[in-house]
């Protein structure tokens, strides 16, 4: 096949959509459900996929004694009849999420051994199900969330802190449900698929401590409200740890993860005549730096046919970070995928035969309205013609502004799933 701009763009969009479909709860959830209990089924959950997961449960168990409540992001709810859906804010929590979390914790209390708590957990659940612990307030948690998001901390580090500020995360939800059986169905959006990190692990033991959370705050010099600093320093009421008897009847099952999406993309790529190379589902680091590294692999393919010859597709997943440093001009509109893509584009320098799409499988790159963006061999040339400085856009974290001006954002709307970022680089043979 001869690759040109039209065919390459269409192929990348098709491949990206293939990865999303591989993680759609509407097609994969039913086969992972547990045996029906003798007692009640209480369905609770949080995340960008929580509502569509609840709808899938209702479809799979049409005659079950179901009730419950899930919380999802604004504009992510789908119709359900027996399980209530509440919408709340992400990535910074709001009062709607706090109220939903309080109700969820109440719903699982007082259940018996014959009852089942079916927990539907997906990416975004940490912010969406925010219930401050101890004497903390929602405003305290909002301040810490904003500071962590701008700090450059990894999702593992951010969620360690969140677990130790919460009355529901870090295994506390499962502990509250004891002695009922707790069965978690999860969609992973985190590198490594650690159950304790997905939505801050409300139904699994927490291997981290208050001391770990304090160390993260210190490492990134995160400014916290005085009440948060005092709460962490007190180290009171530690999260449930492995071996806690209250979690003895808690089970966890992953129904979708980044690797699954990547493997589906690889299969589709082969059907297109592209040899796929999966670089890993857990790539982390500063977004622009990761983009530069991916560009280095791409240049090696073009120049030497290593680590594989063109035509090929480089596929990677994971979650990069964007650090907003003091003195950075305000007003930039970014997103970790578009920033990674801009770093990649600058490093490849407009070389021929290289196209790339980088996007978040939930359809939202950061806080913007796009999933990500596409870069083409002439992206930099078109940017210059439009009066745009790509280097300045990168340094001011305005990658969205650049790709939007060029008409190269990828807009899917909410996909109702979330297996983290999917980065695709299509490399055609040299002319």
Automatic annotation (TrEMBL):
It holds the Pfam family DUF4147. Residues 312-421 form the MOFRL domain. Residues 12-232 form the MOFRL-associated domain. Keywords: Kinase, Transferase. Transmembrane segments: none annotated. One of its GO terms (molecular function) is kinase activity. This is Glycerate kinase. It comes from Roseomonas marmotae. The lineage of its organism: Bacteria, Pseudomonadati, Pseudomonadota, Alphaproteobacteria, Acetobacterales.
């Amino acid at each position: 096949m001869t690759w040109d701009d039209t065919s390459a763009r269409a192929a990348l969009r098709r491949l990206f959509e293939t990865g999303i479909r591989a993680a759609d709860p509407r097609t994969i959830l039913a086969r992972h459900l547990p045996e029906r209990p003798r007692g009640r089924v209480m369905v609770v959950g949080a995340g960008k996929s929580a509502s569509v997961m609840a709808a899938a449960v209702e479809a799979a168990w049409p005659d079950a004694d179901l009730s419950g409540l899930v919380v999802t992001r604004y504009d992510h709810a789908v119709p359900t009849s027996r399980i209530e859906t509440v919408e709340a804010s992400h990535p910074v929590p709001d009062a709607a999420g706090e109220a939903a979390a309080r109700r969820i914790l109440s719903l699982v209390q007082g259940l018996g051994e014959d009852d089942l708590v079916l927990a539907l957990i997906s990416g975004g659940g940490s912010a969406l199900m925010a219930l401050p612990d101890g004497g903390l307030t929602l405003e305290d948690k909002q301040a810490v969330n904003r500071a962590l998001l701008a700090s450059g901390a990894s999702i593992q580090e951010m969620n360690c802190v969140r677990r130790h500020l919460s009355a529901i995360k870090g295994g506390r939800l499962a502990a509250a449900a004891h002695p009922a059986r707790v069965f978690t169905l999860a969609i992973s959006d985190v590198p490594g698929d650690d159950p304790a990190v997905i939505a801050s692990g409300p139904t699994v033991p927490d291997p981290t401590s208050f001391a770990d959370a304090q160390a993260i705050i210190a490492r990134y010099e995160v400014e916290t409200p005085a009440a948060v600093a005092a709460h962490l320093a007190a180290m009171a009421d530690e999260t449930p740890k492995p071996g806690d008897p209250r979690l003895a009847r808690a089970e966890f099952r992953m129904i979708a993860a980044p690797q699954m999406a990547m493997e589906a993309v690889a299969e589709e790529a082969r059907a297109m005549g592209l040899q796929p190379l999966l670089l890993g589902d857990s790539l982390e680091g500063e977004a622009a730096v990761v983009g530069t590294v991916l560009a280095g692999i791409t240049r090696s393919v073009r120049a030497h046919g290593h680590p594989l010859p063109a035509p090929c597709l480089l596929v990677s997943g994971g979650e990069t970070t964007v650090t907003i440093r003091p003195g950075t001009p305000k007003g930039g509109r970014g997103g970790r995928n578009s920033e990674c893509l801009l770093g990649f584009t600058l490093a490849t320098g407009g070389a021929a035969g290289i196209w790339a799409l980088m996007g978040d499988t939930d359809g939202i790159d950061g806080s913007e309205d796009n999933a990500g963006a596409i870069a083409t061999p002439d992206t930099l040339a078109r940017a210059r013609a439009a009066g745009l400085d790509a280097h300045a856009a990168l340094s001011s974290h305005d990658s969205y502004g650049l790709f939007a001006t060029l008409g190269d954002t990828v807009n899917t709307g909410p996909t109702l799933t979330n297996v983290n970022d999917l980065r695709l680089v299509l490399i055609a043979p040299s002319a």
